[in-house]
Amino acid sequence: MTTAFFFHDDCLKHNMGPEHPESPERIKAILSFLADTRLQQELDWVRPEEITRDQLLLVHPEKYLQQLELIVPTRGRVFVDPDTAIMAESLMAARLAAGANIQAVDMVMSGQATNAFVCARPPGHHAERSRAMGFCFYNNVALAAMRALTFHQLERVAIIDFDVHQGNGTADIVGGDERVLMCSSFQHPLYPNSHVYQQPDNIINVPVEAGTSGKDFRKVVEEGWLKALQDFRPQLVLISAGFDAHRLDPLAELNLETEDYGWLTELLTSVASDHANDRIVSTLEGGYNPKALAECVARHLEVLSSVH
C-alpha cells in the first residue's frame, strides 16, 4: 500500500502574472524539494485526467460552468475578482486539479492506495457553488466529498481545512449536509471574512488571532476538532491542506512551524485509523513562501507515507 501523489505539468501553465503569489513556482518548489528526499521514490506518482462535466455538476450548476467558459480569453488575462485571473490555460489546469481529487478518492476507496496527496493548482476551497474567488474556480475538496458520498455511497465524510484563510466555498457547499463534517481553522479576521459565525451544526470553525504560536494553535485545534471528529466517525477524511499559517508566509500572520503541520497530519491520520481504515485524501490549497511550502508538504507526506 502506498501514498498516491497526483501531479500534472499542465497545472503549471495557469499563470496569473509575475507578481501573483499563487504561481507555478509553488509546485516547482515542492517537486524540487521532493527530488532530494526519499519520498521521490516512495510515493506512487499518478498523472491525473480532467474531471468530467457530470462530475463537476455534482457541485457546480451548469450556468456557472458556462459563465466561466465564456470569459476565458484567447490571450492575456481576465480577472474574475480582484485576486483571481483566468487565462486560456486556466480551466484545463482547474479541471485537472479537480479530476485528480476524483481519482484520488477512487484509488483510496478501492484500496489501490492507503492515502493520497493532490499536488495541483489552482486551489479550490474559496470557490463557492456559483462563484469563483480567492484564486479558485472549482471546489476540489467539495467535489471529492460528493464523489465519495454518491459514487462510493459513503454515509459520513470529514473535511479538515487548516488553510490560514477560511474555506468559505466549502462551507457554502456542504453547510447543512449532515453527511459531511467540516472542521476549519483559520486566522480571523482575515480574507474572506465570511462563513465564520452562525454556521450550520456540521461546520466547526476554530478562528485564531494573528500572532498565534504553534503551541497555542495545537491546543485550540485539538480542543475544537477532536471530540467532534471522533463522535462523527468519518469513513473518509479529506484535507484542504493549506500551508500558509507558517510563520514565513507573506499573506498571513500566524506562527506555525513545519513540525506543527507534522503534528496536524498525525492527528488526522489517527482519526482516519480509528474510523476510516486509514483513508485520507489531501489536496493542496494555500502556501505562498515556496521554501516553507515545500518543507511543510514534505513533512505532511512523510507522515502520510508512514501509515502503511
Molecular structure report:
- The chain starts with a strand and ends with a helix.
- The longest helix is centred in the N-terminal third of the chain and has 21 residues, at 90-110.
- The protein has 308 residues and is of the alpha/beta class.
- An eight-stranded parallel β-sheet has the order 2-1-5-10-9-6-7-8, sandwiched between helices.
- It is built from ten helices and ten strands.
Please outline the helices and strands:
Blueprint: E1 3-6, H1 24-35, H2 39-42, E2 44-46, H3 53-56, H4 62-71, E3 78-81, E4 84-86, H5 90-110, E5 115-118, H6 140-150, E6 157-161, H7 168-174, E7 180-187, E8 203-208, H8 214-232, E9 236-241, H9 258-275, E10 280-284, H10 290-305
Helix pairs in contact: 1-10, 5-6, 8-9, 9-10
Defining key terms:
alpha/beta; 308 residues; two-stranded antiparallel sheet; 8-stranded parallel β-sheet; 16% strand; single chain
What's the short story on this structure?
By secondary structure, the chain is an alpha/beta fold.
Give the C-alpha Rg. 17 Å
Strand order of the largest sheet: 2-1-5-10-9-6-7-8
Oligomer: single chain
Q: Please bin the fraction of helical residues.
A: 25-40%
Rounded mean pLDDT score: 97
Overall morphology: globular
Q: What is the CA–CA distance across the termini? A: 6 Å
